[in-house]
UniProtKB/TrEMBL annotation:
This is Alkyl hydroperoxide reductase. SUPFAM superfamilies: Thioredoxin-like (SSF52833). It holds the Pfam family AhpC-TSA. GO terms for molecular function: antioxidant activity; oxidoreductase activity. It comes from the Bacteria.
Length: 200
């Protein structure tokens, strides 16, 4: 578990070192993107201007992702957010053009009762623009298109579901503050999880 976390942190450092990838920054405009969702429909960040948008990097095989889905924590967080009018986009970056990735993600999300507004398979371009390094890796974009949060889903960097109860859910916290018109008290946290694998 510690090795996964260290690899994720290393991934952040490596991505940050590349000028071509160092685009996303809290307090700056969120990088624009267009993708195709699991139903084959186009999805663009610009489609949701005027709304809060959560971006969630995911991977069904990652134990850190399983922690939050098997326990019901992430589906509950998604439902709570979307009930408040927040758009939730789940993104899986895949290292190769695997034609099964789309259907496998769709099937997995259905079994976990996921409640994302839309889910997309990323060829690496979105992940590199946001410097997504781990799964999960979370981002929040405000109605003006500014990135207001980037980092972990919560304060317990483990794959143990038992740790969720005692953790601070950073996404819920940031959304609650932002929806109330307050500044986000912790706009950047250290993401943890499995390393995002990019196409070579």
């Amino acid at each position: 578990m510690k090795n996964h976390w260290k690899l994720g942190v290393l991934g952040v450092a490596l991505l940050a070192a590349s000028g071509a990838m160092a685009q996303a920054a809290v307090g700056k405009p969120a990088p624009a993107f267009t993708a195709t969702d699991l139903a084959g429909k186009p999805v663009a960040l610009s489609d949701f201007k005027g709304k809060f948008v959560v971006l969630e990097w995911t991977n069904p095989e990652c134990p850190f992702v399983k922690k939050h889905y098997d326990s019901g924590n992430l589906p509950a967080t998604q439902k709570d957010a979307t009930a408040k009018g927040v758009v939730w986009l789940s993104i899986q970056t895949v290292p190769s053009a695997d034609p099964k990735a789309r259907t496998e993600l769709q099937s997995w999300q259905a079994t976990k009762h996921a409640a994302a507004t839309a889910s997309v398979i990323d060829d690496g371009s979105i992940g590199k623009a946001y410097r997504a390094a781990t799964t999960p890796h979370m981002y929040i974009v405000d109605p003006k298109g500014q990135l207001i949060y980037a980092g972990a889903i919560d304060s317990k960097p483990t794959s143990n579901p038992a740790d969720i109860a005692g953790a601070t859910n950073y996404v819920n916290q940031a959304l609650g503050e932002a929806l109330a018109g307050k500044p986000v008290s912790q706009p950047v946290t250290k993401a943890y999880g499995c390393t995002v694998k990019y196409p070579t």
